[in-house]
Automatic annotation (TrEMBL):
Listed name of the protein: Catechol 1,2-dioxygenase
Primary enzyme class: oxidoreductase
GO biological process: catechol-containing compound metabolic process
Known cofactor(s): Fe(3+)
Species annotation: Amycolatopsis echigonensis
Length: 272
């Protein structure tokens, strides 16, 4: 028998992310396919690829390498990882240009719906031996005019102190560090959790191979994911970061915004 420390693999995260994405499409549906818009957009994207090939004199062996890599991304089911890391931030930017209030950020590939509902003052589900610095995150959900929103839902998900997400790593129990907190009659909440670690794109899959081959780093700064919902209000999907956190200025997903950086202060017991 061999014993080895099991770390989640790209295939594991990728295939779970692809399945989660398919389920969310089945729930929410796809966009209308307007022929003219597809024609314009597809032409533009292809034209820009042609331009890049010409500008950099792409060779046949390079073309074959790219073809192989694209096949690999699909076979490892890594498209959600790849797209959410390298593309989603621009889609979010365009979508939120007329929005006011709390800034949004990318949803990423690791959201899972239907998590446990929790009261306004709650501790996220975690293992008995959950590693990491305890963290208390409190606040109030308000309208743009400042009126509290009673019963607003804060759907929260995060990586653990090793940088892995439940539902995408077989070593972590389902639902770990995920929950839907229901704000009180004053829109307030107080969530106890642990500080997440920075997240590194799995290195053993094609996305990781591209990153290594290009000499980039594969890190996102530590973050909490939030989706805040209330009937009659636009849902805010965002992320919260930590002041001084590593990779804050070089997030591979380019999804940080200065307004989203928290500065938690330790209490007498060292709880942030
Ligand atoms: C990815 C992972 C994340 O945790 C995140 O917030 C955004 C993107 C990714 O691997 O694609
Ligand atoms: Fe994340």
């Amino acid at each position: 028998m061999t014993t080895e420390i099991h770390t989640p693999t790209a295939v594991e995260s990728g295939s779970s992310a692809t399945e989660a994405f398919r389920k969310s499409l089945a729930r929410h549906g796809t966009a209308d396919t307007d022929r003219e818009r597809i024609d314009t957009f597809a032409r533009d994207v292809l034209g820009r690829i042609h331009d890049a090939i010409r500008a950099h004199n792409m060779t046949y062996p390079e073309y074959q390498a790219v073809k192989q890599w694209l096949i690999d991304v699909g076979e490892s089911k890594e498209w959600p990882l790849f797209l959410d890391v390298f593309v989603e931030h621009v889609v979010e930017d365009v979508a939120s240009q007329d929005h006011h209030g709390t800034k949004g950020s990318i949803e990423g590939p690791y959201y899972l719906p239907d998590q446990v509902m929790l009261p306004a003052k709650a501790t996220l589900p975690m293992r008995q031996e959950e590693k990491g610095t305890p963290l208390v995150f409190s606040g109030q959900v308000r309208t743009l005019e400042g009126t509290p929103i009673p019963g607003a839902e804060l759907d929260i998900w995060q990586a653990d102190a090793d940088g892995y997400y439940s539902g995408f790593a077989s070593t972590i129990p389902d639902g770990n560090l995920r929950g839907v907190v229901v704000a009180d009659g004053d829109g307030r909440f107080e969530i106890t959790t642990v500080q997440p670690a920075p997240y590194e794109i799995p290195k053993d899959g094609p996305t990781g191979k591209l990153i290594a081959a290009a000499g980039w780093h594969a890190w996102r700064p530590a973050h909490l994911h939030l989706m805040v919902r209330a009937p009659g209000h636009r849902t805010v999907t965002t992320q919260l970061y930590f002041r001084g956190g590593q990779w804050l200025d070089s997030d591979i997903a380019q999804a940080t915004k200065p307004e989203l950086v928290l500065d938690p202060q330790p209490d007498a017991d060292g709880v942030l």
